[in-house]
Amino acid sequence: MIIGILQMKNQTMASNKLNNFFIANVIACSIAATSTIAFAQAANPVQNPAQNNPGPALPALPVTPSINTVPTIISLQPVTIKDSYATDFRSEHPQVSSGWLMVIRGDSSILAPRALAEPLLLASGISAEGVVWIESVEWFNHGFISGYRVCFIPSTAQPQSGADRTTQGLRVWFGSPKLPESVDANTLQSELKEADRAGIVAASAVKVEASAPKVLANRDELITAVNALIARWAPDESQAEGASVPVAPASK
User: Cα separation of 54 and 234, whole Å?
Assistant: First the structure.
């Protein structure tokens, strides 16, 4: 019996030694792996998302916001939409019943399509009462080849408080790289402060296509108007397979 007890004790001690040896090896491997990762990070520090390199086919994304990436406003058309819709360019999905159809021109480095979060396209202005407004701009094509992007500045304010919105002091710029569906009111206020710090100023000599808003029945008619603008300014995208919006025939 004594011999059996001793054998059991020896087996237990051997098992403990084996476990201790295994744990020590795990710890050593973890330390080695951590050191390797730390060394790799030191040698290759994580880049700012705004400075990512999308590969040889696309230019590197410049830092935003910056006065160097501010687009040129080509055209601006006020519209009203009888049947309002919920915009997907805000996390709260506010209703939209008016705004401005807009065409902008930008550098290919900022308009290039990317699989990652892209710089937000933002617009701000001053109401008739002197109140600053800011919106997340909807866009419908990249404009990488043509240099032209067709957009819509939605007015997400209530009709009674949004009817006085004007293009006075209009600023359009590219903000921080984010997914449009993640934008909320706090994000917009933060982006507005960043634009001020970056020195983004109001666009000069913005031509509004008409004094009276173009009346549209619903979002489908808005998309039709967008298609026509894409066909005019970025025909390479309106004719491409898998275009971002349904193709509209080019005017002749």
Answer: 23
